[in-house]
Fold:
Amino acid sequence: MEKTYSFKPIGHIKRPGAELEADWSDLTSESVISIDALYSEALCGLEEFSHILVCFVFDRREGVALKIRPEEREEMPEVGVFCTNSFMRPAPLGITVVKIIKIDGTEITVKGLDALDGTPVIDIKPYCGFDYEVKDYKIPAWLKKLWDE
Structure:
């Protein structure tokens, strides 16, 4: 029998104005990750990093799609959801690399977080640069087209 996993959030995202929707392509907007005081010691030393990986839950998504058109655009090919960053995935987990603007107590102000106000945060990890960078990579033409726009 397969194991089932559940996670208790370590905090929540504060992003006023993005309670129901957000412009996911706006990577300049700032958000605050408010960490539960229980985990305050876990933030020690984080200010030495410029970026973090934020793992969060798409807690308001409804339904799952195994195939979608990226950004729901008709001119895009229908692809498997695992080829996208869509929230319609089987496991409602989001992961984003964000820039740390400042850390004040248990509040981390970041830039580029594509999550809604109140979204539960499951974990944060330091972005270590060389450990995560891949020099030789390829992406499909449809994704390059989206990025070029």
Summary: The CA atoms of residues 70 and 86 lie 8 Å apart. The helical segments are 141-148.
